[in-house]
Amino acid sequence: MITVKNAESYLKNKIGADTDDIKKVWETFKTFCKVPVEGEEDKEILFQCGVYDFTGEELFHLDFVRQFTVYEEDEYSRMEQLHCEFLFKPTDELSNLEIVEWSMDYHDIDDFFNHIEKLQEFKIFFNIKPINSEIYQEEV
Questions:
Q1: Cα separation values, 25 from 21, 29, 30, 33, 126, Å
Q2: Which of 8, 63, 87, 137 reaches 20 to 30 Å from 55, CA-CA?
Q3: Where is 139: in which H helix or E strand?
Q4: pTM of this prediction?
Q5: DSSP state, 61?
């Protein structure tokens, strides 16, 4: 079974070396989001994008996130987020985009994914190559 501790390596193995292929990463991420993770009660999935200076430079971030609530001995311990993040130079077209969508705001995870895929803003990314991509997990 997948645990929070091995979720990042599990997803990286499923995606392989094509981490710049947004369509492949998205499809793999969607499948991964339906796989149970030990101790997870609710699936919390986030789709976000916008111009941020997290790196010290203003870049456009496209981020698919699965959030985990970690319990130790039935006590809340922390939250961790597994990111599939793509960075782009902030063009005029991208600079106007900012979206934050949580799966909990939808009837179920399929409704959430369907909504994201219908967004015109989402479709833009299949025609643009990121300057960097990274899959990583962090405590929040």
A1: 6, 6, 9, 12, 11
A2: 8
A3: strand 132-139
A4: 0.92
A5: E
Strands, E assignment, 10-98: 44-52, 59-72, 75-88
Q: Side chain identity at 116, as an amino acid letter?
A: I
Cα 93 from Cα 11, distance rounded (Å) = 30
Structure tokens at 131: 């300057």
Q: Give buried/exposed letters for 1-36 (b at 16+ CB in 10 A, else e).
A: eeebeebbeebbeebeeebebbeebbebbbebbeee
Q: How far is CA 14 from the centre of its chain?
A: 15
Q: In this structure, what token pair is assigned to residue 118?
A: 């219908």
Residue pair 118/50 in contact by the 8 Å Cβ criterion: no
**72 contacts: CB under 8 Å, gap ≥ 6:** none
Q: Encoding tokens for residue 4? A: 């929070």
pLDDT in tens, the chain (140 residues): 899 999 999 999 999 988 889 999 999 999 999 999 987 777 899 999 999 988 788 999 999 999 998 888 888 888 999 999 999 999 988 988 999 999 999 999 999 999 999 998 888 888 889 999 999 999 99
